[in-house]
Amino acid sequence: MQAIMRIVIVAALVLGLAGCYHIIKMPDIATASIYGPEISGGTLSPQEVASLSSWMKAHNAGWRGLMASLPAPVAMAVVMRTQDGRQTTLNLFEAKDGAATAYLFQPSPTLPRERDLSKADVIALRAAVGK
Hints:
Elements: H1 2-18, E1 21-22, E2 31-36, E3 39-43, H2 46-58, E4 63-65, E5 76-81, E6 87-94, E7 100-105, E8 113-117, H3 119-128
Antiparallel strand pairs: 1-4, 2-3, 2-5, 4-8, 5-6, 6-7, 7-8
């Protein structure tokens, strides 16, 4: 009986962990603006919006539910809108040790998500939005 219980517990843990990461569905971005303490801000060009859209689609996997408060300060915030005006916000936080995390806020009922980013991911994101 104990062996069966161990198997059930291990299976539940494995299935629970497998469900921790999500693939986000990112609709087409019509417009986007960028903000940040060291960023001049403003509306992205159509080419930058296309690059941002490609970056988002290339990084659609590996998102997990937001489990903690957001760190401060934000290094960059990207506000994206679809053709129908629905807003999605991507906040980028960079630690002094080089670690970076993106936080994604999509329209309700989608819950906030977070994803760790490599230095290469951050460089590609900044290149996509021209910053």
